[in-house]
Amino acid sequence: MDRRRLLAALAAAPAALALGAAKKKEAKRKDPPEPRASRRRKGAKAPERHVDVAVIGAGALGAWAAWHLVRQGLSVRLFDAYGAGNGRAASNLASMMLDPVQGGDALYAGLVEESAKAWQRLSDTASLPILTACEAVTALAATDAFAPPRDADRLGGDRLRARYTQIAWRPEEAALVAEKGAMLAGRRGVLETILDAQVAPEDVVMPAPLRDKRRDLYTLPDGGTAKSLVYACGAWLTELFPQTLTPQRLSAVRQQIFHFGPGQGDTQFRPPAMPALVDRAYGFNLLPDVEGVGVRVWKSAPDATVDPDSFDRRADADSGGRALADARQWLAGRLPRLADAPVVASAAAHDCRTATGDLLLDRLPDHPRVWVVGGGAGRAFALAPAIGARVAAHVEDASRPVEPRWALARLTG
Ligand SMILES: Cc1cc2nc3c(=O)[nH]c(=O)nc-3n(C[C@H](O)[C@H](O)[C@H](O)COP(=O)(O)OP(=O)(O)OC[C@H]3O[C@@H](n4cnc5c(N)ncnc54)[C@H](O)[C@@H]3O)c2cc1C
Asked: What angle do CA 139, 141, 146 make, to 5 degrees?
């Protein structure tokens, strides 16, 4: 080939290549276009009928117990009477707080770091964030005398006022500031955990354990079997085990939640400027505005015991507007710039409380391979990864001692 023909061929090459690539692209393009394949999730396997463990309850505790059990190599079925992510479950709230201070309780503070790491890993691989980092501030009551846990600093009123200008602080006040707090997506977090565990949740109402003595297995409603059972049914544990878990020992308690909407473009109530706030001085809690859902406010103390199946989940359904009036009064004192903000969402929700305020995690009497887990007084969601790990460890090693504060005997005397 002479020089001129060679140059002409070289000049034509990019055009030919581009034409080839365009043809290839054209061939690949689907009409109509298909949605992009999921970034990483494999589908859940079809449930087996005979498994190592059946987990009953697909709230945060059941989801994370299932997650850990699967990671341990066990076969798992996950049941929920109303379906995973249902509107009655305590785990169904839009947002939850992960508070490293835990009211100065070392047992629960110890579970925070482990749980935060697990939520972060889940969040990093999810399509939408599950964990949003924010500072967590505990405003101390005058009688609080606990020392700040590791990673939290005690600040006085003047320093707090300089750091959080949206919050009103009295000069004599003190608060514990933890930089490694977080907000978690509630319902989305549960569904993502189940997806990540690759377990297909089944809409099954599970009765109390039915043991096949001959085979030493538990019979499941569809005739399948499980070697072990984990009842992570929250406030429904009372319904399942009325003799052991009487309403005096474990109950569903109601709390009212209000989301107040800051003005357009107002970012002072969003992380990182706005922390989560546990106001022990006045008995309220607050989560900052994330994803535009507004600043969430709720009283620490419940206002009624309820039936988790049938209670009306509208806020202030039977209290004549008192719950909202209380929340606004607190807001006017603590976050005066939000005092007149509109309510953009509200609900009545239930939590599962034990008489001791602690978590319950123990075997069912006379059933060495049946575990019950629930309660936790307003913090079990955030700590669910660490609690789920402990549930799985108990299932794996039945001789592992239970945490004395979580023992059934503490409730049953
Ligand atoms: C107002 C409010 C604010 C809160 N804020 C926070 C917070 O900021 N941070 C935090 O960590 N926690 C918070 N909590 C607590 C948190 O919501 C709960 O601790 C947590 O969600 C409990 O999860 P769970 O899995 O034990 O129960 P649930 O989520 O209630 O799940 C139990 C599941 O069991 C199923 N079930 C029941 N009976 C059966 C049966 N027989 N067969 C099959 N399935 C059954 C139910 O349908 C349900 O889905 C808050 C609670 C309230 C009320």
From this structure: 85
Residue 32, preceding peptide bond in cis (omega within 30° of 0): yes
Residue nearest to atom 32 of ligand 1 (CA): 233
| CB 255 near ligand 1, within 6 Å | yes
Instruction: With beta carbons less than 8 A apart as the criterion, state whether 186 and 98 touch.
Output: no
pLDDT band at 10 (very low <50, low <70, confident <90, very high): very low
pTM of the predicted structure, to 2 decimals: 0.91
- The tally of CA atoms less than 13 A away on the side-chain side of residue 86 is 18
CA-to-CA dists, residue 229 to 206, 211, 275, 295, 360, angstroms: 10, 11, 39, 39, 15
Which ranges of 289-399 does DSSP label H, i.e. alpha helix?
322-334, 380-396
pLDDT in tens, 148-163: 888 899 999 999 999 9
Superfamily for the 50-412 domain = FAD/NAD(P)-binding domain (3.50.50.60)
Output the residue whose Cα is nearest ligand 1's atom 3.
Answer: 378
Euclidean distance between CA atoms 413 and 396, whole angstroms: 27
State in Å: Cα 175 to ligand 1 middle.
Answer: 29
Ligand 1 centre distance from Cα of residue 376 (Å): 10
Nearest atom of ligand 1 to the alpha carbon of 285:
8
Q: How confident is the model at residue 7 (pLDDT cuts 50, 70, 90)?
A: very low
% of the chain exceeding 90 in pLDDT: 84
Cα dihedral 374, 379, 384, 386, rounded to 10, equals -110
Ligand 1 atom nearest the C-alpha of 95 is 8
Work out which ligand 1 atom sits closest to the CA atom of 96. Answer: 8
Q: How far is the CA of 85 from the centre of ligand 1 (A)?
A: 10
